[in-house]
Amino acid sequence: METFIAGLFLAFLLTELAIESLLNEANIRHLRQEWREGRLPDVFAGRVNDKTYEKSVGYAEAHGRFARWSGACGAVLTLVVLFGGVLPWLDRLTGRVGALVPVAEASGILFCLGVGGLFALLSLPLRIYATFVLEERFGFNKTDPRTFVTDRLKGIVLAVVLGAPFLYGVLWLMKATGTWWWVYVFVFIFAFQALMLVIYPTLIAPLFNRFEPVADGALRDAIAALAGRVGLRTSGIFTMDGSKRSGHSNAYFTGLGKAKRIVLFDTLLEQLSRTQLLSVLAHEMGHYKMRHVLKNLGLSALFLLAGLWVLSVLLDYPPLFRTFGLEQPAHHTALVIFSLISGPFTFWLGPVMNHLSRRHEYEADAYAVRLLDDGRPLEEALVSLTVNNLSNPTPHPWYSAYHASHPTTVERVRAIREAAAGPSGTVPAAGSVDG
Predict the structure, then answer these.
(1) Which distant-in-sequence residues (6+ apart) come within 8 Å of 206 by Cβ?
(2) Which of the following is catalytic: 20, 91, 284, 380?
(3) Over the stretch 371-412, which tens digit does the pLDDT of each residue have?
(4) Is 42 assigned a catalytic role?
């Protein structure tokens, strides 16, 4: 049975790796061919020059080549941890150390944190390369070595300060609540996630970035008026020093309840006009108004509950543990094994979730058009962000369908123009939109 379990896992892992590799190679060839043949979509006509287009192709290619190695390295690391004797060795080590700590679940907490720390440590070279080589080559990296190291150290402290109590609660409930432990753990994890949504904007995010109220009074008033029109109550409108780490730009809503806040990257303020900024925020408000966040939370809750039920079934199945070198089932080892092997068995859910996400993006775009009674600012903002971030303007359709949580810029612009035109009208177009 152990051989069957190992073979089944390897089959799914290799299938996932093969699909992602084939799509990655298809995407690289596709964007290179589109560039050679000059098939830049008309929506970018007059908004991107040949040099910038070539640079965006190079950036996408560089990320594609990096994906080859990062995907393979991730698969190898997972296999080494699962089949290389790492788990039983770490279980023995943390068991001895945990026995010295007067906390009932100390050994299990140390084991789970140890596995997470091991993955973080061994993946550090890839993160360093991505930051200081790949992003640096294309002018996006603004992170200095000191900030990089400080971020990693803060992450370790947060993992211990937040992760240890969280793991204690999960492991204690698994042991103390009997057969239906997975229901209690579900409630605990969901409540913990809700708490993180509340405290993240005000307590955690400021540990990494500086947040200041929007200085431009006219822009701040315009944003507040827009939020008031949709009934969005926030704790403030802030700018974030995103340029401290990257040249990329973004805007987002964060928080839950009264802790909700609007955050604009300082780089975004430099790249977009006021009307374009308002259109981007109108899109984000569309997500709020159409309850996309709550819908996603509900769907995530269903997946979490289903996953915990599966774990409860596997918890008392000794062959699963023996497959990975562990003699006896244990709650803490079950958590780690399930987290490591679940990905290859559920990777097909990614494209399904991305499809739902893309539908939400279309809905939020349409809402922004209705709210502003004009689709042109949002169209211009999307094109500007695509150009400034060197995003791939012509991804392979299959690659985009598999990986992308957002429609392509061309697809979004087409939908924005249709929404602006309404059921019977037409909108003057700056140029035709093609693929």
Answers:
(1) none
(2) 284
(3) 999 999 999 999 999 998 888 888 999 999 999 999 999 999
(4) no
For residues 411 and 183, give the distance between their C-alpha atoms in angstroms, rounded to a whole number.
41
Does 50 qualify as catalytic in the annotation?
no
Taking the CA of residue 57 as centre, how many other CA atoms within 13 Å lie in the half-sphere pointing to its CB? 21
Cβ–Cβ under 8 Å, residues 13 and 76: no
CA distance 345 to 269: 42
CB 138 within 8 A of CB 55: yes
Close Cβ partners of 11 (under 8 Å, ≥ 6 residues apart): none
**pLDDT under 50: residue ranges of the chain:** 424-435
Which of 16, 105, 361, 365 is the catalytic position?
365
The model carries a pTM of 0.87
Name the residue among 224, 68, 66, 187 with its Cα closest to residue 134.
66
Cα distance between residue 133 and residue 68, in whole Å: 16
d(Cα 309, Cα 188) in Å, to the nearest integer? 14
3-state class of 328 per DSSP?
coil
Contact 364, 287 (CB under 8 A): yes
Residues 6+ apart with CB under 8 A from 213: 220, 236, 237, 238, 239
Residue 45 Cα distances to 12, 185, 254, 357, 384, angstroms: 43, 54, 35, 28, 12
pLDDT, residue 432, reads: 38
Strands (E), 299-417: none
Question: What counts of helices (H) and strands (E) characterise the chain?
Answer: 18, 4
Q: Concatenated DSSP letters for 168-237?
A: HHHHHHHHHSGGGHHHHHHHHHHHHHHHHHHHIIIIIGGGTS-EEE-S-HHHHHHHHHHHHHHT---S-E
Token code pair at residue 106: 């100390």
